[in-house]
Amino acid sequence: MKLSTRSRYGTRMMIDMAQRYDNGPVQIGDIAQRIDVSVKYLEQLVIPLKKAGYITSVRGPKGGHMLTRAPHEITVGEIVDVLEGGINLSNCVEDPKVCEKSKECLTRNLWEEATKAMRDKLDSTTLAQMIESGKTI
User: Which residue has the higher pLDDT, 131 or 137?
Assistant: First the structure.
C-alpha cells in the first residue's frame, strides 16, 4: 500500500500547525511555504480535516487555521483515516464479503496482520511525538 499525497501532505500540514499550536491561528499560505505544497492543495485538505473536527478556522486579519486539540491528542492514524477514508491493505480485510474466497483464502490473514501492524504504528504516533523526533518536515 502506498499512502496518497493527501495523507503525506495532510500530515505535514498538521505537524506544522502542531509546531505552532500555542501561537494561535496559522495562515495556510505560511504553511504552504514552509512545507513546499501549494495553497490550493492544502485548502482541499483543510476541508475534510475541519469537517472531522481536527481543525478550526478563525476569520480576520490575524485569522487562519489551528488544531482543535493538543498535538499529543491527535494521532497520525486519525489524520490518515480522514484523508484516505481508512487504511486496509486489501478490501477483504475490512469487509470479507467483497471476495467470495475470503473464508478459504490463504493470504487474507497476512493482509489482516500487516494492516493491524501499520494501523497500530499510525494510531500510536501523535503529532507531538513527530515533533519531538526532531526531524524536519
Answer: 131
